[in-house]
Design goal:
The protein is an alpha/beta fold and about 500 residues long. The chain contains eleven helices and 25 strands.
Length: about 500
């Protein structure tokens, strides 16, 4: 196989005789042309990039899911996110295996920046590994084939990869985004005004009630008028999975509540975790055939898959079972749920949480489909029902979401303590180049008021406020507005006036 050379002189060495490689527009596209019965595993090396790197060169790599990022230096990588992909909780790959840099890897040396990046994610997740050699260092690109058999593929097309070099990082990212957009065009909401409003989660968590919402809307209308959006977060539903059935904390239902919000001049938004369900839900009881099953575990093969069997099990109402979005009946269900919320309830923004779980691998109705493909099918079903409403991804698989969301959470959940504020700042700024290029970035809610069991000093709230201001993305207050301190009102109002 012949080596390929980018315009910036970077050499790329093909590694698979069963792939055809084409270099066009500074991207190498991969297409499988081998025998039909091959299995592509999760560590399928496709390209090697010989390099000469400084041992203390700075690095920045992404993770498959939102909570994973890696920084530090070539000789001392550091996890930035709280939950690396190879952590004991997430288990996407073995804890002691070579570090995987999903989606892209940026290396900073004294002479500039080099970005190795996947520019598409239609079927497979892609990642890079740093492999020291006697003559230098190889950067190797891998495809996670999810142990699928090529005979089951509907297309032989794989993904595309680029290498970009430059002395200005912003220019490198700008070039990268253009190449990504050629495969995954942006949704129209990416360039719309960034939502400014209020979210119920960090004020009341799952204990939220209908009265809580009304009380906060009252403050928004008569003291915080700059807050336009009202996001009803987790806690309104009877069970995970039954999104149209309210809990008894909402005796008048959700439709009337959202219509009340709209009647007062605010824009209603709602949270749902579309790809999961708990065992107590009606959807799980009535349609057990709609959920994915174990595929490879000999002891559990054919049994319904619980998230905790293979990855982090979820933060409440567990165990989580995963909808099989390769099933047309499931796609229709998702479209109908979201369409009901949009057309009948008046929802104008959907916060889709736990999206990562929609990409889990397992036995689905469509044989040979990858988790990435299934996730994208499910997201398209949601988009079909959402109409012109905005779509916000959260706890999502990052590159599998390309072209499917208007906004994307790029940081961990906020907590009112300095360590988490610092972590969120790093995560947000590392992904800030994505804002209005791939999606609007969401650095999570701004919190300026302490709760009984969660609080910190005023200086830390000022830092957190400044991070949100600098990010320029979504700005949603996470405080109980009727309980705002004078300090929080003053600090929050100054932010809103600047961002308006």
């Amino acid at each position: 196989m012949t080596s390929m050379i980018f315009a910036n002189s970077q050499i790329a060495i093909p590694l698979q005789s069963d792939l055809s490689y084409a270099l066009m527009n500074e991207q190498i596209t991969l297409q499988f042309n081998g025998l039909d019965n091959q299995i592509i595993d999760d560590h399928f090396a496709v390209l090697q990039f010989p390099t000469q790197l400084e041992q203390d060169a700075k690095i920045l790599g992404d993770g498959f899911q939102m909570l994973a990022q890696t920084g530090g230096r070539l000789n001392a990588p550091q996890d930035i996110g709280r939950c690396p992909d190879n952590s004991a909780s997430y288990r996407l790959y073995p804890e002691h295996a070579a570090k995987r840099f999903y989606n892209y890897l940026v290396i900073e040396q004294t002479d500039g920046f080099t970005l190795f990046g996947f520019t598409s994610c239609h079927r497979f997740a892609g990642y890079f590994e740093i492999q020291p050699q006697q003559a230098g260092i190889n950067i190797t690109a891998f495809i996670d084939g999810e142990h699928t058999q090529t005979q089951d593929w509907r297309s032989q097309q794989m993904e595309a990869i680029t290498v970009i070099k430059g002395t200005v990082l912003a220019d490198v990212y700008a070039d990268y985004t253009v190449k990504i957009q050629s495969h995954h065009p942006r949704r129209t909401g990416v360039t719309a005004d960034a939502p400014v409003g209020w979210c119920s989660w960090y004020a009341y968590y799952a204990q939220v009630t209908g009265q809580h919402i009304l009380d906060n809307v009252e403050v928004m209308c008569h003291g915080q008028s700059e807050l336009e959006w009202v996001l009803l977060d987790d806690g309104y539903q009877a069970f995970m999975g039954d999104w149209l059935t309210p809990s008894d904390k909402f005796p008048n239902g959700i439709k009337s509540l959202l219509q009340s919000i709209k009647a007062q001049g605010k824009k209603p938004a709602i949270w749902l975790a579309p790809f999961i369900a708990q065992a107590e839900s009606e959807i799980f009881k009535q349609h057990p055939d709609w959920f994915i099953r174990h595929a490879n575990d000999d002891l559990l093969k054919g049994d319904l898959l619980k998230a905790e069997d293979i990855t982090y099990g979820g933060w409440r109402c567990t165990p989580w079972y995963i909808l099989d979005t390769s099933n047309v009946a499931v796609q229709t269900h998702l479209t109908n749920v979201v369409r009901t919320m949009q057309q009948e309830w008046g929802v104008e923004l959907f916060k889709l949480d736990a999206n990562y779980w929609g990409s889990l691998r397992g036995q689905r109705l469509q044989k040979g489909i990858t988790g990435v493909e299934a996730y994208r099918l499910g997201m398209q079903a949601i988009i079909d029902g959402a109409g012109d409403a905005l779509v916000l991804g959260c706890n999502a698989p990052m590159w599998p979401s390309l072209g499917l969301v208007d906004a994307m959470r790029v940081s961990d959940d906020v907590e009112r303590r300095p360590e988490r504020f610092e972590q969120i700042a790093k995560e947000t700024f590392n992904r800030s180049w994505q804002h209005r290029q791939l999606w609007q970035i969401d650095p999570d809610c701004i919190t300026l008021t302490s709760l009984v069991d969660q609080g910190t000093e005023q200086a830390n709230y000022v830092f957190h406020r400044d991070v949100i201001l600098a990010a320029g993305g979504l700005t949603l207050s996470g405080d109980p507005l009727p309980l705002l301190t004078a300090f929080a009102r003053r600090l929050g109002l100054s932010y809103l006036l600047v961002s308006a």
